[in-house]
Amino acid sequence: MTLDLLKMRYFSKIAELGSFTRAAGELGVAQPALSSHIRTLEEQLGVLLLNRTPRGVTATAAGQTLLAHAQAILRAVDQAEVATKEQAKYPSGDVSLGILGSISPILGIPVIQACAQRFPKVRLTISEGDSQALRVGVDTKLYDLAVTLEGVAKPAAIPLFDEVLFAIGANGQFAPGETLTIEKALGLPLILPTRRHGIRILLERQALMLGREINIIREIEGVASTKAAIRAGLGVTILGRGAVYADHENERLSTATLVKPGLQRRLVLDMPVNHPPSRAVIEVRNIVLSVVERLGAEGHWSCTGVKSEKSR
After folding, report:
1. Distance between CA atoms of 87 and 243, rounded to whole angstroms?
2. Could you confirm whether domain 93-311 is CATH 3.40.190.290?
3. What pLDDT shows up at residue 87?
4. pLDDT digits (tens, 9 = 90+) for 268-299
5. Which helix (H) or strand (E) holds 220?
6. CA-CA-CA-CA torsion sign (122, 125, 131, 135)
7. Is 1.10.10.10 the CATH number for 5-88?
8. Please, where in the chain does CATH 3.40.190.290 lie?
């Protein structure tokens, strides 16, 4: 290629300053080398670019044309460099995060707050859904990241935490520290989601092993609606600690630990495959990991080897 950035930068500086000597001083290049570059450029283009006079140099008509284009190109290159460095320091762009509906209220807000504080140019969108919907969203690249169940996610998903499951009832229904066997819990008047949900699948598997029927009195989609029904005395449910942590602490609901066996589910951070993450996605991923670890330390769940990207 006849034109390159170095030649254009040298030519532009000489034309702007009207002097080989001054341009050589500003560029830090020996004047003979600078003259050689311009001579080569003129030979390659087949035109005279600069008029040499005892008082300096001036651009010819062809030189003026090249100068206008060269200045625009060099400005664009400089702007690209600044923008790239700015992106490295302050990543920007859209990031879509899907979160399992039962933990979205407790995990989503801290992630949004941390992202807004640390990376204000990142536009984070959070959606909640069941594990099947999240899997489809990851597969179709609707979500850049998804906090979902291990059994539904890809094998390469990052383990986040193990969430213990509890029987959840209205305030005062279960005594502090009360435990329930799985067999007894299956006989409670249960409010459960439909069959596509992970907890429902887990309970049906336990019922099959025990040879018991699940006493489902109503089906409700959505954690908020389910908890409202429980507070109204319409039944009990089975949920993870993260979904009812604040309600239990504020005595709006009561819980009983499930035993023989204890039930828990592992949640992971899933991502599309063969789709390199942007810097913004990587930073949001790190925020999710750090928030999960912090909430785990507060007792919401038991973390399973959460590490930030920087420590990997």
Report:
1. 36
2. yes
3. 65
4. 999 998 888 988 999 999 999 999 999 988 88
5. none
6. negative
7. yes
8. 93-311
